[in-house]
UniProtKB/TrEMBL annotation:
This protein's name: Placenta-specific gene 8 protein
InterPro entries from the UniProt entry: PLAC_motif_containing (IPR006461)
A Pfam family reported for this protein in Swiss-Prot or TrEMBL: PLAC8
Lineage: Eukaryota, Metazoa, Chordata, Craniata, Vertebrata
Recorded family membership: Belongs to the cornifelin family.
Length: 115
């Protein structure tokens, strides 16, 4: 009696997908692709952050917690199978906060079919 040879190890479970090969639907500076989001972010960035958290299904207070938007970006990236790292998530939300929040809001609106 021969034993079967194992050629593939089972993978661990994850959010959405194991392989993150996807990309964001829009670029970081694609604000003109959704004027509503761009205008809200320019006039009142905290309101856009709260709107984004709410649309993603999180508590609106997440936008006011230090690191909250970084955590949400990481979760969003993992859920949608978008390439990246936690370090990149932190850098993008800290250094490009307004633009990155706009991109996250656009991504949610696109994936929910709101645009």
């Amino acid at each position: 009696m021969s034993n079967p040879v194992i050629t593939h190890q089972p993978g661990a479970g994850s959010y959405g997908t194991n392989v993150q090969t996807g990309k964001w639907s829009t670029g970081l500076c694609s604000c003109c692709s959704d004027i509503l989001v761009c205008a809200l972010g320019f006039i009142c960035p905290i309101a856009l952050s709260c709107y984004t958290a709410d649309k993603y299904g999180e508590n609106v207070c997440l936008a006011c917690v230090p690191g909250g938007m970084t955590a949400m970006r990481t979760h969003m990236r993992l859920t949608y199978g978008i390439q990246g790292t936690i370090c990149n998530d932190a850098l993008m939300t800290c250094c490009c906060g307004f633009l990155e929040t706009c991109r996250m809001a656009r991504e949610i609106r696109i994936r929910n079919g709101d645009v």
